[in-house]
Amino acid sequence: MAHWNSAVGAAQLARLLGSQHSVRRETPGAAARESSSPAGTAGTADVPGTAEASAATGVLGTGTAQATRRVPAYRSLAEGLRLLVLEGRIPVATRLPAERELAAALSVSRTTVAAAFEALRADGFLESRRGSGSWTTVPAGKPLPTRGLHPLPPENEGTVIDLGCAALPAQQLMGEVFQSALAALPPYAHTHGDYPAGLPVLREALADRYTALGVPTMPQQIMVTTGALGGVGALTRMLVPRGERIAVEHPSYANVLQLLRETGGRLVPVPMAGNLAGWDLPAWHRTLREAAPRLAYVVADFHNPTGALAGVEQRRELVAAARAAGTVLIADETMADLPLGPPGATGTPSTGSPGLEMPPPMASFDPGGSAVITVGSVSKSIWAGMRIGWIRAAPEIIRSLTAARAYVDLGSPVLEQLAVAELLNGAGWEQAVTERRVRARENREALTAALRDQLPDWEFTVPHGGLTLWVRTGGLSGSRIAEAGERLGVRVPSGPRFGVDGAFEGFVRLPFTIAEPLAREAASRLAAAADLVRSGAPTPSDLPRSYVA
């Protein structure tokens, strides 16, 4: 049985090592500019035109700082590979090229590569077996991305700034919406109240919404779920036997990664492209061809955590590739209603904001819903407290999901479904999401300005929508910053929460959920946490398990 899920070629690995070195040499202040860094990706970006020779130069440490320290060539190579694993550019369980092949690509001796591999094995980042080659790992005992922030207790709200949840509070409009829902409740109150597929009025409203977006949809193609996570869980249990491979973006949404693990899926990470450019399609083609995953989970619209937006041709190509491979795509549209426009944009943010035109839904490239199954929710665009989501798929899939729901939760709350239907069938939906976009954009500007001022060596690329900012923490451990921040009154989820088996140690995710002056205070506390980590002071290591929304 293979111990690896994917493989990386020698030339590709040389380019990754070379681009990693070029990013390290950036001046600290430049990284915080809007387009300064590929920190919105799964690691560092490829540098166009970087040849194997320059990659070898970067690996062997001929830069000034490394030359001053006189780092041995094999140790510099081992360190470069280790960082690629931790940053997610090389996923865990990826087979590396043979020693002789990699040595030729890097223009170094085979002895150097062999010594680097031996150092990585000793450090717990590589395993090897005769006949199977060498593949990447993480050290035994290294925390997996299941640790992080527990829900903030109400009594601590006045002292701790909670940046663990990427969701905004309810709007005043919600009171009126629920009053209307209560008025519509009596006919349903005379029934048993269990609607496994969802209330007909809401299914019809959601189908009409997809049709208006250019994706003809019947109510029979919709099932209402208890949040988007409820939909992903139902689909995974029905479509993927335990032990089957599931392809995921890397990084990806933390709660879905944990859900897929607990349902028995074998995760196959696929790196994101650089500079918020969406998916790395060559990597997707390789994964679909070589790993043959049964299922793939993607966030095309303002990806969580990076904020990347996949373009029209990317969507078309990935759907076609998945269909050819027999892989079912789950497209999570939770953030799709939150286009904010580029930084500094003025006016009311909308799908027609200056500099931003929203691509068509993923389902438009598979209207029947057999190859692309869409999952949506009101948690980000309206209010997470409603716990209403939905699935759009082929009618036969919806029938199977509905039948299976009898022994899960029987259905979603009736009153909340009526409230969502009230929003969709009136003017309330557009009013609510417009207000949400305005607030999220204001919060984005406040947070990024505070980070540039307080933490100029932290790197990020500002997304044009969504609620999340993916930040590289200036060479410091994101996990240690999260732990130190806990002591200083600010909670943040560290990068490994969003990776597979401990990747993205040098990142944190920050949400657009707080405005001035709280955003500046949060940045100040994070700067203090970074100083604490930089000083080497001990930080607590017994944080409880919980979720990141």
If you had to describe this structure to a student in words, what would you say it looks like?
It contains 19 helices and 15 strands. With about 550 residues, it is an alpha/beta fold. Strand 7 (about 245-250), helix 11 and strand 8 form a beta-alpha-beta unit. The longest helix is centred in the C-terminal third of the chain and has 27 residues, at about 430-455. The chain is globular, with a radius of gyration of 24 Å. This is PLP-dependent aminotransferase family protein. In the C-terminal section; belongs to the class-I pyridoxal-phosphate-dependent aminotransferase family. It holds the Pfam family Aminotran_1_2.
Mean pLDDT: 84
Number of H/I helices: 19
Oligomeric state: single chain
What is the β-strand count?
15
The largest β sheet comes out as: 7 strands, mixed
